[in-house]
Each structure stands twice: as structure tokens, then as C-alpha cells.
Amino acid sequence: xxxxxxxxxxxxxxxxxxxxxxxxxxxxxxxxxxxxxxxxxxxxxxxxxxxxxxxxxxxxxxxx
Length: 64
Hints:
Transmembrane segments: 6-21, 28-47
Radius of gyration: 15 Å
Distance between the termini: 54 Å
Largest sheet: none
Keywords: Membrane, Transmembrane, Transmembrane helix
């Protein structure tokens, strides 16, 4: 049980730093790292870091 806690804390910190560097929500990635551990690592690189999110994409579609 101790090992899982250490691994979760480690990946939580790693994802917090990576997510912050990419402009994403740092707290979200901290929680994802603690909960999912190394399985969340690839997703931080594919995550959309656009602050406007989906609404900006929809507005682009409406202009066409």
C-alpha cells in the first residue's frame, strides 16, 4: 500500500508540472496523476490546452 501511495504522489507531481508547463489546469492533472498514476501520462500530452475549449471550435464552424 505504501508503494502505491508513493507512485501516485510521484505521478501527481509529474503531471502537475507537465500540465502547468503546457498551460492546462494543474490541479486537474495533479488529481489524474494521483488517481491513475502512469496511465494518465500520455493523456496530458494529447489534452487540449486551449482556454476557450469547445466553444471556440463551434464558433469557427459557424463562421464557415
